User: Fold Sugar transferase from Marichromatium purpuratum 984.
Amino acid sequence: MRSVRIFRHYMRLPLLILAGVEGLMFVACFHASFHLRWWSIGAEVPASSSEVVVYSVVLAVIFVLSMGAMGLYEASLREGWWGSLLRIVLALLLGAVALAAISFSFPHIELWRSILALTVVLSIIAVTALRLLSYVIKPGIFKRRVLVLGGGPLAEAVMVANPRGLDIVGLVPLQTDEHERDLPERIPYDRPLLRIVTETQADELVVAVKDRRGKLPIEELLDCRMAGIQVLEPQGFFEREMGVVKLDLLTPSWLMLSDGFQHGAMTMLLKRLFDVLVSVVFLVLLWPVMLITALAIAVESRFRHPVFYRQTRIGENGMPFDVVKFRSMRVDAEADGRARWATKNDSRITRVGRFIRKTRIDELPQIFNVLKGEMSFVGPRPERPEFVATLASKYDYYAARHRVKPGLTGWAQLCYPYGSSEEDALRKLEYDLYYVKNYSIFLDLLILIETVEVVVFGKGAV
Assistant:
């Protein structure tokens, strides 16, 4: 399955095409509902106008964004068909609520509720039928076929990673790696490499060889490249397929010579405007939630303890600042003064705290940190100075995550479970480096949309 790069972030081309097709289906469902509504009351259909076309396009865009927010344009169906059907229903209901809010805010937009309800029903039927048909006709329709060339731990790491949306068709060991253990996917290197690629119907070739000097079949790799087969190195493969910069493959020369890390003045200005706009919108929409949360925390502590808590974190360029959050732990959580990682089922978390951490509500006061310019809405998670000092002294490149402002949500928070150890922090660093390298407003929007999935389905929280 081919990928295209939009503002330095890889998107699966078939899934983008699927989003486009479903967008057209949403437009068609709206027009069908429009005509059915007038037919059901025995009235003549009004002459088509530009307004109806604009309404249908706006509806399609919002429905596609809602589908994306529910994870329906990812490379696999995580919970099977019933789970996917639930996500489709929730996505379209979410889109309908957004459209109703738009109609309420702008009364001159005449978006009839009966037409909207019928559009949702028809859209659920149409999208479910399309996805079932695609799967029945070709189960691997959205999968890209990849062949691995090499051997040893690096090749095995690529094989084991096997990201969703890929079909790794086999491993072709180089002759110098014949001592490696046999694998079920092992393909003998007893014929030209291009012929093996053709026979396996591979779309891409990953060269998983750590020490390449004198070991690569250069002529055969050129033949594959000239035949239209994409040839990738492991770092590029992991970056594209898993959204990470692998630390064990990272070298200073790769950091200097690879594309990305473009943080110009105009980019930063646009990011700041984006942060302020999103923060204001969230404050306007979520102040009732914040008020109820503050009251619940106060009631649970019988009005004896503070609702908020401040804690020093490390921000952009290593500068410390005080982060503000809703208090989710007991006030004596660190009575001995020793910093600790939060863990799963942490006994220090209160009953209200467990809920607001699961739903990410405890993070909402950080909107004020964003408005002050200490944080961005999207970025690496800000860590405590004690943890930063330890990790930066042990691991190279850890300080690179502080090249941008920390965020209320981020790429690592979406892609990796809640960190509770140094090892977790190291794995999240790989996602943070991907974000720092490939930052764009588009990626920020994508992270915000997918954050809705995290909140709705409770992924990754402790």
Remarks:
- DSSP finds 16 helices and ten strands in the chain.
- The beta strands are 3-6, 9-12, 144-150, 166-172, 204-208, 230-232, 308-314, 320-326, 376-378, 407-409.
